[in-house]
Automatic annotation (TrEMBL):
It comes from Mucilaginibacter humi. Residues 191-266 form the MBG domain. This is T9SS type B sorting domain-containing protein. InterPro entries: MBG_2, T9SS_type_B. Gene3D superfamilies: 3.30.160.710.
């Protein structure tokens, strides 16, 4: 028979011989030596097999190979052929099972601020090349860089040194193990900036907008930022009553990513104050009818009637304060009546207005 060397975990190439017999009390039992298996078709193998029945056994081929579970080492011996009390043997050629290649790596990814400690039985590894569903319980890991909490974001090439795979169901004797260095990758840690809700009355300046940080590590502070955040709102001095977003943006830092949580600026209604008189005489003082804070109701209606009920002024909204004229002409001094409706649902504001010159 020819050589049937194998690599551990892979069945060896097969060799074969032919058996036959006459006047046999039973079929021929074929039993290979330890580490080998036999087959009659070269496909399905077993630890032993029986060929034929009592009497005459026609020539039949027997295939022999090393089993894929056979441990590393050198193997030989005889294939034993038996029928009843009669037996014979077929010698095998010296063959060997050589170690299977096994590669163990342990690339590590951590967040900035975390600490990696050397480990004597780490389970954080990848094993490529294990055979027969075998397992490794742990390996030894040493970190040469990137393991400290203040090591900055980046990739530390070859900083993971692995060794000493142990325990589990595998046997290191069956493998040629390599431990190529792996990388430590340090990722930025999330930093959350949360804006504070604010409120003000209509017509007032926006309050100072503020926010809070959450997520600094290593006792760090905004001093570590390479670009400070900007907080803003879309509300301006003349914005109507309502709610307006407060947003944050623009922060930057090597070791942090940023989550921005917006807030709301609420502009509350301010009571409308209606002047009871004005003096449209062109001296630049009190020349227009002042209705303070009416700008918060952009769809209001304003009407002014004279003593006879004739409408001398009418406006939807009050974008330009009334100057005491009607159809381009100055109205005479006197008392006028006004009706102001701030919204379609609100009760009208009414009263008297004096023009003084």
């Amino acid at each position: 028979m020819s050589n049937v060397d194998a690599v551990y975990g892979t069945a060896g190439a097969s060799t074969s011989f032919t058996v036959s017999g006459t006047n046999l009390p039973a079929g021929i039992l074929v039993t290979p030596p330890a580490g080998y298996e036999v087959s009659t078709d070269g496909i399905t193998y077993s630890n032993n097999l029986t060929i034929g029945l009592p009497g005459k056994v026609l020539p039949a081929k027997v295939y022999v190979r090393l089993k894929l579970t056979t441990r590393v080492g050198k193997y030989s011996g005889n294939v034993v052929l038996s029928s009843g009390t009669a037996s014979a043997s077929v010698p095998t050629i010296l063959s060997a099972v050589t170690p299977a290649p096994l590669t163990i790596t342990a690339p590590i990814t951590k967040k900035y601020g975390e600490v990696l400690n050397d480990a004597g039985r780490s389970t954080e590894f990848t094993a490529i090349g294990l055979k027969n569903n075998e397992t490794i319980e742990g390996i030894t890991i040493h970190y040469s860089a990137g393991a400290a909490s203040n090591d900055p974001v980046g990739t530390y090439k070859g900083a993971v040194i692995t060794s000493a795979a142990a325990r589990g169901t595998f046997s290191s004797a069956n493998y040629a193990i390599s431990y190529p260095p792996s990388d430590v990758t340090v990722e930025a840690v999330p930093l959350t900036l949360t804006a504070d809700d604010k409120e003000r009355n209509y017509g007032e300046a926006n309050p100072v907008l503020t926010f809070k940080y959450s997520g600094f590590v290593n006792g760090e502070s905004p001093a570590q930022l390479t670009s400070l955040p900007v907080i803003s709102t879309t509300a301006v001095l003349t914005s109507p009553v309502g709610q307006y977003p407060i947003t944050i943006s623009g922060a930057a830092a090597l070791n942090y990513t940023f989550n921005y949580v917006p807030a709301t600026l609420t502009i509350k209604s301010t009571p409308v104050t209606i002047a009871s008189a004005f003096t449209p005489n062109g001296d630049g003082i009190n020349d227009r009818w002042d209705i303070k804070y009416i700008g918060q109701f952009p769809n209001c209606t304003v009407e002014v009637m004279n003593r006879y009920g004739y409408k001398v002024f009418n406006s939807v909204g009050y974008p330009i304060a009334w100057d005491g004229r009607s159809s381009g002409a100055n109205l005479p001094v006197g008392t006028y009546y006004y009706i102001i409706k701030l919204t379609s649902e609100s009760k009208p504001l009414t009263g008297y207005l004096a023009i003084i010159r």
